[in-house]
Amino acid sequence: MQVEFFHDVICSFCFPMSYRMRKIANKYPNLTITHRSFALGWEKEQFIQMFGSHEAVKGEVLGHWEHANQNDDEHRFNIEGMKEKDFLFPTSKEGLKAAKAAGLIAGQSAYWNVFDALQEALFVHNQDISDKLVIEAAVKKSGVSFEQWKEQYEKEETEQAVIEDLQCVQAYGIQGAPAVVINQKYLISGAQPQEVIEQTIEKIAAEEGFQLSGLQMMSSDGDACRVVDDKWICD
After folding, report:
1. Which pLDDT tens digit goes with each residue over 40-99?
2. DSSP string, 61-114
3. Side-chain half-sphere exposure of 168, counting CA atoms within 13 A
4. What pTM was computed for the model?
5. CATH code for the domain of 92
6. Nearest-5° angle of CA 59, CA 125, CA 3?
7. Which residue from 62, 96, 130, 207 could staple onto 90, CB 3.0 to 4.6 Å apart?
8. Which domain holds residue 74?
């Protein structure tokens, strides 16, 4: 079953959702999870258009953090720490490129690790994740090959891959992040509770005839030998 997880490094509700989706990945190992970019504020021009100025973003967004912290199972947001910082609220672009570069060189797990490291840097440690040094530190923390990552990060194809994800957002008609699209036709919108995500996935799997864990039997049992009660029995 194909799962596309749309999220943004600066999205507060994406932080608790990523935590829950990792539990989903562990519980249902047969899912194929692909990470997709969603940009709430690609560059500062988008912030100015939405908020009137780049400076106005932080005050508004910290109110969102309050709600996201309540949503977060671990309540990890450092809101008071962020209030003391004087940098402008980071944009989406560089962080999304950083995660995409990791995914291009080392697969979806590398994308996820860099993405989560960037979100932790912002929401817990109150660092400016549009700053190249902060991004590089997060990449190094993730365990991906830094030299390979840096080379990929600087390639034009990396930004293009992010833009293709954003085009996918438009094609699906997704209105906000986080969003999970299953088999290109089912949508889980927003940071839903763990049990709701699991119930939804299990319902879809049943409708699609998909086995979420273990091996799916592709034919009837053939002749075989097995051990039963310490005895070797063959058909």
Report:
1. 999 999 999 999 999 999 999 999 999 999 999 999 999 999 999 999 999 999 999 999
2. HHHHHHHHHHHSTT----HHHHHT--SPPPPSHHHHHHHHHHHHHH-HHHHHHH
3. 20
4. 0.90
5. 3.40.30.10
6. 90
7. 130
8. 2-234
